[in-house]
Amino acid sequence: MIAGAVVAALGVGVGLWATDDADGSGAADPAARSSPEAAAPSPSRSYALSKEPRTIPAVRDHTPARGPGWQPEKAHRVVVADASLADEGRLIAGELGLTYAGEKDDERAGDVRLDVRADEGADAESYTMTVRDGRVTVTGPAEAGVYYGTRTLKQAVDGGGTAPEGVVRDEPAKPRRGFMLDIARKHYDADWIKDRIRELGDLKFNELGLHFSDDQAFRIESDSHPEIVSDDHLTKAEVKEIVDLAASRHITVVPEIDSPGHLGAVLAAHPDLQLRNAQGTPTRGAIDISDPEAAEIVDDLLNEYADLFPGSQWHLGADEYQALTVPNPEASYPQLAAAAREAYGAGATVADLTTGWLNGRAKTVQAHDRTPRAWNDGFFRDTSVEPLEDIQVAYWTGKEIGARQPAEYLSAGRDVLNYNDEFLYYVLGEPQTFVYPTGERIYERWTPRVLRGTQAVDAKYDDQILGGSFAVWGDLPNSQTQAQVADGIRLPLAATVQKLWDPDRPELSWADFRALADRLG
């Protein structure tokens, strides 16, 4: 009766810990009964088998055990096995109100220990979190995995919760889990962006895209071309703070200078580079790619910002070049047609010249050891010039002229990132046919294989889909305040990362998932 009362008081899911009766039968080990320490019943017999921690994204594997679990107390320490984990150790110690003790070999009650343990072939973002004997150990093959383990621990004990006894083994399904922010059409202050980075880090996102150049504005300080920078912009010092904070959360900042379209802010200061049709009418946002100075100014910017954004990824844009939206580009833009023939032969087209432009910009960022990506409508069918093989496809729409199904890119062997505008586009003001996406719809109906519309591509292409990104666009920038944007994207971000971490149908209902997201803040 007393033991049963203890179980009832503690609750079924209070925690779990490894015990001698791993099968949960409660049968004691005969050898243990013969020792003096075993004269009294083991306290572990009073605990129910633990349940997995409730986190976003959900952990993928949890081995339950019996025991009280772990809760943070002021006297507890965070220790690291290697100095390389000092940032992760200090962060989780500060978040949980613990003492960061640095590198220690001794063990104390209540310790949280972080350790990198090389495991050849293991995902660098994988981790193991073990709760046992009143202590927590988080290990991984690299610092990123250990960091994600601390995010699981933080969420497990949020609001007075308990990290359950047992072992969590976890890793993401997709290596690219992103959030893209259009800071060109709408200016966001540095502190707001930093708050989003902290939110993204806790959710185990690992990319932040910054689209900072468009027709409306150019939003980052420039030394090579200060004349193009808008009044409201981020200084390089602010960007460095953003990049450094992101790096501390294992988030790569992916810059985007879109070209050869969407360059209106650059062209406002360089009208001589504006593309004009045969009648001399300027073409909105489009640079004249037949003019060698066009490539020079864009490459100046790409080279300048390579030092500011040291991550491995770069977005080249390449979408919606207006010269290719007319019925006969060669007739409408004879200067582009002439340049195409000169560069690629008698039968070359404006699409060939535009593909050559994309390849040129890709080579510029590849010289800085960056992997380029471009929007899917920057890739054209039936051209004699092929996009470089290493350019990844950022698939966002199937509405462009000559639209191609995602399988065409995948069957050609290209790696693809999912920006599906049917689910993942938060367009301010809901222009055209856009509506604000909901977390529920993403949670219930989207997976990384749903690249276009609502239909998934064949499972055989799954490995080529590197991940995806939720995107905020500022088409009608005054439609929402920064605070409204933050509130509007909170649940969609949580749902997106859940499906990027584990695309299988979630265990929790949407109502329970939303309640969890609300509790975690």
UniProtKB/TrEMBL annotation:
UniProt keyword annotation of rRNA-binding present: no
The GO molecular function terms of this record are:
beta-N-acetylhexosaminidase activity
Q: Name one GO biological process term.
A: carbohydrate metabolic process
Locations of Low complexity compositional bias? 21-50
What positions constitute the catalytic site? 320
Q: Which Gene3D superfamilies match?
A: Chitobiase/beta-hexosaminidase domain 2-like, Glycosidases
Beta-hexosaminidase bacterial type N-terminal domain residues are 53-170
Q: Where is the Glycoside hydrolase family 20 catalytic domain?
A: 177-483
Q: Where is the composition biased (Basic and acidic residues)?
A: 51-64
Annotated region (Disordered) at: 21-74
Keywords, comma-separated and alphabetical = Glycosidase, Hydrolase
Q: Tell me its family.
A: Belongs to the glycosyl hydrolase 20 family.
Q: Could you tell me what this protein is called? A: Beta-N-acetylglucosaminidase
